[in-house]
Amino acid sequence: MSLAKAKELDSKYPTYKQEFAMPTFASLGITNPDFDPYTESIYLCGNSLGLMPKCTRKAITDELDAWAARGVESHFNHPDKSLTSWVDIDIPVVPLMAPVVGAKDNEVAVMGSLTANLNALLIHFYKPKGTRTKVLFEKQAFPSDYYAFINLVKLHGFDESHLIQVEVKPGETYLKTEDIKQVIDKYQDELALVCFPGIQYYTGQFFDMEEITNYAKSKSEDIRVGWDLAHAVGNVPLKLHDWNVDFAAWCSYKYLNSGPGGMAGIFVHERYTQGNSKTDFNPRLAGWWGNNPEDRFLMLEEYDPINSALSYRQSNPSVIDTVAVRSSLEVFKKVGGVEKLREKSLELTQFLQDLLTESKFYTPQSDQDSSKFGFKILTPLNPEERGCQLSICFQPHIDDKAKNVMERVHAYLHDHAIICDERRPDVIRLAPLPLYNNFEETYLATRRLFEILEKISSDY
Predict the structure, then answer these.
(1) Model confidence pLDDT, tens digit, residues 140-180
(2) What is the per-residue pLDDT for 275?
(3) Could you tell me the CA-to-CA distances from 29 to 32, 44, 214, 414 in Å, in that order?
(4) pLDDT tens string 59-72
(5) What residue numbers does the annotated binding site for pyridoxal 5'-phosphate cover?
(6) Residue 197: what pLDDT?
(7) Measured on CA atoms in the order 217, 219, 222, 224, is the torsion positive or negative?
(8) What's the rounded Cα separation, in Å, for the pair 94 and 86?
(9) HSE toward the beta carbon, residue 34, CA cutoff 13 A
(10) Which positions does the record annotate as the modified residue N6-(pyridoxal phosphate)lysine (predicted)?
């Protein structure tokens, strides 16, 4: 793979970085005499925090202006008649979000934060009964998910034995679908709930969501299947309704670029909300924003849930956070959606993989010798089994931070304004995003990576 090949691919696949504010050497506080201070960074960290769409600034300023001009009256009488009054601020965002996750409009709500939403959904969908009390998830789940699961079962009077975790087999770097199905088989009479990430945060693996969902549900109609889509939403095409998923939760500040701590979202299959009525509904954590909007301000002591995922909302949404989500989703719509971006993403991540595997420092996943100097890729090498991210594990492992290979590589990349995510002790996650990354800068990032490995190789 060459720079010429990178430029050829860039002529074929457009970049949309003009829609985003790009950090520079100067804005990052990096002084490097080999680069002009206003040289743009190579930002490969959208899997941690997406860059700011330029349109977001105006979207937020418009609402600050409304607050300044009319205060509380902007809830029902926005000074800019082209914009939504605050009482309904999240409603126009739903039809923008639904296609991103492959849902009907009535199955999506933009609300809350990821773990708060996940907890609310778990409490609603975890219905232990008889011997069916166990929760199945992965051994390396993101800590927030583990904390949610352990407290979920304890709230019902159970202990850790009611958590079933699927673990990566020795000598492998990610879970196989067959491994998950075997555990489902083993505990099929004891499972109440199955919950995995759409994409595993550490390895970047894209789980076969449709296969796992339908396999678990084929064992019993009493098994509920949900997904944490923090690293999947905006990254890979999703079809939650068609895949028969029961529920899902996600954040929006990674691939959806809504800003740090931005408004999150949920999916609840319509079969759970279409029967809602004042007298017949599935109890959930509830608040007045999920109640019949026509009666909301009558302050009635009568729960009348909305017949959609909106009924899971508890409080009025943050206006600022909501318009930040909306502005980014409008960019997604403008460029053709996730399916269109996926075409470039597959090529871009494969290009990165090809560059890495051509290096003399590359060690195949099957090589168990961890004393070799270099790196291996933890992420599945099959493009269909991953999103934008490749997770690189450096070796040999050194406890001393000053001598640790990953730490030295990460510091060198940062000094060259190549922004990526480190996961101690030995992993760097590289995420070339189709929205604002291109092939040439991906090529340059690997050149810097190989440069530092060459410089430090003699030390090991």
Answers:
(1) 999 999 999 999 999 999 999 999 999 999 999 999 999 99
(2) 77
(3) 10, 18, 50, 11
(4) 999 999 999 999 99
(5) 114-115, 142-145, 228, 231, 253, 288, 316
(6) 98
(7) negative
(8) 15
(9) 3
(10) 254
Say how many Å lie between the first and final Cα of the chain, rounded. 27
Beta bridge partners of 418: 42
Which residues belong to the annotated binding site? 114-115, 142-145, 228, 231, 253, 288, 316
d(CA 280, CA 147): 32
Backbone angles phi, psi at 362, to 5 degrees: -80, 135
- CB-based burial label for 415 (10 Å; 0-12, 13-18, 19+): middle
Q: Are 96 and 326 contacting, i.e. CB atoms less than 8 angstroms apart?
A: yes
Long-range CB pairs of 271-278 (<8 Å, 24+ gap) are 272/246, 272/247, 273/106, 273/107, 273/305, 273/306, 273/307, 273/308, 273/309, 273/311, 274/307, 276/305, 276/306, 276/307, 276/311, 277/304, 278/302, 278/303, 278/304
- More confident: 284 or 224: 224
Which tokens in the block code for residue 96? 């923008």
Is this model's pTM higher than 0.70 or not? yes
User: Would you mind telling me the total number of residues written for the chain in this entry?
Assistant: 460
Cis bond upstream, residue 396 (ω within 30): yes
Backbone φ and ψ of 29, nearest 5°:
75, 25
- The residue that leads in pLDDT, 368 or 80, is 80
Instruction: Read off φ and ψ for residue 398, nearest 5 degrees.
Output: -130, 125
Q: With beta carbons less than 8 A apart as the criterion, state whether 54 and 19 touch.
A: yes
How many Å apart are CA 171 and CA 100, to the nearest integer? 35
Q: Give strand pairing partners of 228.
A: 197, 249
All residues at 6 or more sequence positions from 289 whose CB lies less than 8 Å from its CB, including other chains: 296, 310, 313, 314, 315, 316, 317
Cα separation, 156 vs 67, in Å, equals: 44
Helix (H) or strand (E) holding 191: strand 191-197
Helix residue ranges per DSSP H, 358-438: 405-415
Spatial CA neighbour of 208 closest among 195, 218, 199: 199
Neighbouring residues of 134: CB distance < 8 A, sequence distance ≥ 6? 162, 163, 164, 187, 190, 191, 192, 193
pLDDT above 70: percentage of residues in the chain: 100
pLDDT value for 274? 87
pLDDT in tens, 240-299: 999 999 999 999 999 999 999 999 999 999 999 987 777 788 889 999 999 999 999 999
